[in-house]
Amino acid sequence: MSHSSLVRASRRRVLLAGLAAAAASAGLSAAAQDAQAAFTLAACGGSNAAKNQGASFQNGAQTYWRSVFASSNGCGGAISLQAYLSNGSGNGRAAMGAGGGSSSAPFINCSPTCGTGNSGGGRTLAAGERDATTAFASTDEGPTPTQQAAMNAGGASPSDDGLVHVIPAATGATVILAHPPNGCDLSTITNKTGETGDGTGDTAADKTQRLRLTNTLLEAAFAGDTTANTWGKIAPGISGTPTAGQNDGLSCADVPVKRIVRQDDSGTTFAFKAFLSLINPGRGWLTTYNPAPNTVWPAAGGSGTANPVSTGPPPSGGAAPAGGAFCSNTAANLLCSRNASGGGGLSAAVTASEGSIGYVDLATARSSQFEITPTSASVTTQDYTFWIPIQNNPGGTGTKFFEPTIDPLAHKPGVGARGSNCGDVAVRNAPTPANSPRNDPTLGDWSTTFAAGGAGYSNCVLTYIMAWDDSAPVYGNTADEQGKARTVKDFLASSVVSAAGQQFTNVDYSSLPNPQAQPLLKYAQDGVNAIDWNKSGGSGGGTPMPPGTPPGTTPTTPPTTPGGPPPPGKPSNAFTVSTGKVNSGRTSLAYTVTLPGAGSLVASATFKNGSKTVKIATATANVTAAGKAKLTVKLSSAARSALRKKKKLTITVRFVYKPSGGDANTVTKTVTVRAKAAKKKSRK
To answer: Which class for 548: exposed (0-12), middle (13-18), buried (19 or more C-beta within 10 A)?
Structure first.
């Protein structure tokens, strides 16, 4: 874009704030009227040039979806995508034209399409200025109506107007990272895991007992509140003297709590602050501390505002960050970030800073080695970097603590199946067909939507993919652009919003909630199905709507789309299963299964007796509608006998759900049942 074009674009963007509400209600631009052209390329006939960037939270999911795309469920390797650039939600939105972005995280090959001011590195983009090399992008925080208007309007000329779909793609757990001061004795703290019946499997013997914070303490600690600003306050009973180095001259109880946060405009930060706002609405988490960019936090003491001090190793050829290599006890407001975008930078800063806490997605936490490693060494040489369980029902009466993993034992290396424990989270403020342009929620306002709260693990993220309804007016009606757009649609339809894309087999994410009252997966599938090519006519042909036709009107003759993954012809078979609950008599296991629709459900339970697999029981249910089903598996006499002899029994339960008219899907859960402690005989 030339300098004069940028000037004209800036004049035009003065109107965007006023046009945002109108764009949200009208849902289309002059160049994106409801015409119905079609791709001229067949399914899997696109190019390998499509690139995407954005939310670091999606890094593991993008890897998984690419594996689905390369399989027979996708294009079988006929075409592929470029590598995903995990550089933060703010950069993802900016690449689509929302404005902003981080100068420390380069866009994909932005120069020269992002203007003459960019020379191959990253920089802040003006509203409406798009990175034309980015075919689609990701975010964990829905764009605001003003940002959507900027994306859709583009540059100065109406000829490049577009329409962006904000497509829900997955949910996942945000985990709380803890790095207590090295050398301290955690066995003496009073709020630790591994107590009787908590289901974590943590023990004093293998040094795996971890911190367990109430919602009140957790919120206060991340606010820098005086009630939770030392390790003695958040881990009562912690004892000993820290290892020499970072906390010299202090007892373990007196070491200050250092807060590690993201340095970039982050959707994970937005979701985490939304969770904290449920605990303490009066703190201002979604007002005072959620501007754009959302890098502002409470100052020391729990009020006022502060920005983090940058820490970490010096960048290549650059000066050392102001805060040094780690977050020190003299850092302003005890608030630090890593000099890098994304969750990987945050977790690295927590690892480097003894006496710190942080937050990051589950997949990044695991890849950054925050699983707790059992050891028989002394308590002062245990593994000091781990994630912690959190209390349920923020803002209410939290009665239980839950792990971020679907398997409650999967916080240890090599133990349990991978998966995020967000099946029961509450999704709040999602748009509906009734309040969305064209009755399509993916064109609606997701900026206040978040996934937090509920009876289970309640600190989760709803993450999105942003894709163009029609890329032809946005980036040009060329063969190269159609090739990229074809690949984007094929990828989304076959590998993201499909049953295979939502299974997340042994991956640290959760499928989209799809209850009848708020079917996010259906919204996503409908949004992807709407994507096409050159809808205004031209080489794509099609059936244009008469001028002035209201949004949402269906053409008299429905068009057909040659090639491409068709609209999902089979019902979704993606489902989630809660953690098993053992009854007090140790005779049965109870599960809650969340299902997308009618079908059959079978649960088969087994246990190992030496090398032999012993069947316990089978439970079945016929499901008539989407929602939650209760299933109880009763322990057989053989299982109860084995439990009495062994004192504990690891049971594997295999759930098979087959939707009516669809394909079967399987989820496997494991649970360890411990025998009831023998009652002590009273002395006479």
So the answer is: exposed
pLDDT digits (tens, 9 = 90+) for 634-665: 888 888 888 888 888 899 998 888 887 777 88
> ω before 659 within 30° of 0 (cis)?
no
| Residue that the structure tokens 């969305």 belong to | 436
pLDDT-wise least confident of 66-70, 101-105, 599-603, 606-610: 101-105
What is the secondary structure of 299-356 as a DSSP string?
PTBS-S-B-PEEESSPPTTSPPPTT-SS--TTSGGGEEEESSSSHHHHHHHHHHSTTE
Q: How far is CA 130 from CA 62, 111, 115, 156, 413, in A?
A: 22, 11, 10, 12, 42
Residue 547: count other Cβ atoms within 10 Å of its Cβ. 6
Confidence of residue 501 (pLDDT cuts 50, 70, 90): very high
What is the rounded distance in angstroms from the CA atom of residue 98 to the CA atom of residue 84? 20
Q: Per-residue confidence at 316, pLDDT binned at 50, 70, 90?
A: low
> Phi/psi of residue 528, each to 5°?
-65, -40
**How far is it, in rounded angstroms, from Cα 637 to Cα 507?**
35
| Chain-centroid distance, C-alpha 608 | 35
Residue 67: both structure tokens together: 């594996």
Rounded Cα gap, residues 677 and 675, in angstroms: 6
Local structure of 63: helix, strand or coil: helix
Amino acid, res. 208: T
53: which strand partners?
85, 137
β 627-634/427-428 pair status: unpaired
**Nearest Cα residue to 148 out of 90, 107, 99:** 99
pLDDT tens digit string along 216-271? 999 999 999 999 999 999 999 999 999 999 999 999 999 999 999 999 889 999 99
CA pair distance 328, 512, nearest whole angstrom:
40
| Mean pLDDT calculated for residue range 564-592 | 77
Distance CA 604, CA 211 (A): 35
Contact 49, 481 (CB under 8 A): no
Rounded to 5 degrees, φ, ψ at 632 are -115, 130
